[in-house]
Write a structure and sequence with these properties.
about 55% helix, iron-sulfur, DNA repair, Endonuclease Iii, domain 2, Endonuclease III, domain 1, hydrolase, mainly alpha
């Protein structure tokens, strides 16, 4: 399969999910920042649930910076690795102080504790910033090799690097989340619904099934 055809091959997938909001139920950039940090190695559904009372009490970074780690920790005890994440959030609030100080570029975002490339790319996409990379979450790590875009790697940064090399810039902002939604809804780890996949005719896994 020629990689130069991938833009055309992936168009049905992008069209299916283009513009769909991330599954984290955020209302502003501040909430998104907090939630992407908390969601690492945890489920979006859990983070959506536990942050409701937290955001009622702490509506912005300034309110967190004026509290203490002891004040905010009880809100996160059901989050995986919550002691470390709570410390990150508190230190981040002390550093940035106001919501308007949240970075809008990849370099400054990944300089923050708790923010890796995946989280930074999510923030950039969801806040309509210029793409500087491609979102690669656990779903993309599984789906991209299955389709045939990359070798199978556990390292999301390796997957992202290959996707950046092979895919045109104009689809970077959408293709990561499109693959993520595909993995959540159709290309499941067990019993994938290949017949419902918009790019099954360009998928190595589907082709092997029908050989």
């Amino acid at each position: 399969m020629l990689f130069e055809n991938w833009k055309e091959n992936l168009e049905p997938l992008i069209n299916k999910y283009k513009g769909r909001k991330h599954p984290l139920h955020y209302n502003n950039t501040y909430q998104l920042l907090i939630m992407v940090i908390l969601s690492a190695q945890d489920s979006d559904a859990n983070i959506n649930n536990i942050t409701i009372p937290f955001f009622e009490k702490y509506p912005n970074l300034e309110s967190i910076s004026n509290s203490s780690i002891e004040d905010i920790t009880p809100y996160f005890t059901k989050v995986k690795n919550y002691p470390t994440k709570t410390t990150w959030l508190y230190e981040l609030a002390k550093l940035l102080k106001t919501d308007s100080a949240v970075p809008t570029n990849l370099t400054d975002l990944i300089a923050l504790k708790g923010i890796g490339r995946k989280s930074a790319n999510v923030i950039l996409r969801e806040t309509n910033q210029k793409a500087e990379g491609i979102i690669v979450d656990l779903h993309v790590i599984r789906v991209a090799p299955k389709v045939g875009l990359t070798p199978k790697y556990e390292d999301g940064n390796k997957i992202e690097k290959l996707l950046i090399q092979k895919l045109p810039y104009e689809i970077w902002n959408e293709i990561g989340m499109a693959f993520s939604f595909l993995g959540r809804e159709i290309c499941r780890p067990t019993n994938p619904r290949c017949d419902d996949c918009p790019i099954n005719t360009h998928c190595n896994y589907f082709k092997n099934l029908n050989q």
